């Protein structure tokens, strides 16, 4: 695959060599966060490591379809969209086209909504830790997820900065 003509990856004054590495790190960290346990919940009777994938599979097995749909959209859909649009904008979208501003707008929105996961995990940890019969330990999946959020946020920030340097992105306030 080749980068599109006038994409940020091809403009000398706007090219940022760290962006592709941040996108790659985001994808790798997110993939690991999906399948690596984030927390381990222990009670008197069992220890249960929980990853995003195992949580979603458990909801499907319990026929909790509404909750499954909501968590799938916010835990899988938005992060994947963020990674996809970072790559799409950097490599395949000409900065002088209307699609560029529209895709940057989408990136801003997906970034905000994908942070909802962080809040949900934090609330769940606090709720479970408040139970005297439950202990909870963080696992590597949580750190992979935090690394994904950091890499994708930094990637978007650097992408926005490169776009401003290219003189084409004017930023959209919400």
Question: What is the secondary structure topology, with strand pairs?
Answer:
Elements: H1 18-35, E1 39-42, E2 47-50, H2 52-61, H3 65-92, H4 98-114, H5 116-129, E3 135-138, H6 140-166
Antiparallel strand pairs: 1-2, 1-3
Q: Could you characterize the architecture of this molecule?
A:
With 174 residues, this protein is mainly alpha-helical. It has one domain (16-163): Butyryl-CoA Dehydrogenase, subunit A, domain 3. It is built from 6 helices and 3 strands. It has helices at 18-35, 52-61, 65-92, 98-114, 116-129, 140-166, and strands at 39-42, 47-50, 135-138. Strands 2-1-3 form a 3-stranded antiparallel sheet. A hairpin with a 4-residue loop joins strand 1 (39-42) and strand 2 (47-50). Helix 1 runs antiparallel to helix 6 and helix 4 packs antiparallel against helix 6. The longest helix is centred in the middle third of the chain and has 28 residues, at 65-92. The chain is elongated, with a radius of gyration of 19 Å. The protein starts with 17 loop residues before the first helix and ends in an 8-residue tail after the last helix.
Output the keywords.
174 residues, mainly alpha, Butyryl-CoA Dehydrogenase, subunit A, domain 3, 3-stranded antiparallel sheet, 6 helices, 66% helix, elongated
């Amino acid at each position: 695959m080749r980068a599109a003509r006038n994409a940020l990856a091809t403009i000398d004054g706007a090219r940022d060599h760290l962006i592709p590495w941040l996108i790659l790190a985001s994808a790798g960290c997110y993939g690991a966060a999906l399948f690596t346990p984030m927390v381990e919940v222990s009670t008197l009777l069992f220890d249960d490591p929980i990853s995003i994938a195992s949580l979603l599979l458990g909801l499907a097995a319990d026929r909790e379809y509404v909750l499954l749909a909501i968590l799938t959209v916010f835990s899988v859909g938005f992060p994947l969209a963020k990674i996809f649009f970072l790559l799409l904008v950097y490599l395949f979208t000409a900065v002088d086209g209307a699609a560029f501003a529209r895709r940057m707008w989408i990136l801003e929105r997906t970034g905000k909504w994908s942070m909802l996961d962080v809040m949900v995990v934090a609330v769940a940890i606090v709720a479970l830790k408040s139970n005297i019969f439950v202990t909870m330990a963080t696992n590597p999946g949580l750190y992979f997820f935090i690394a994904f959020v950091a890499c994708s946020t930094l990637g978007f920030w650097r992408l926005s900065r490169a776009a401003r340097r290219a003189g084409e992105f004017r930023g959209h306030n919400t």
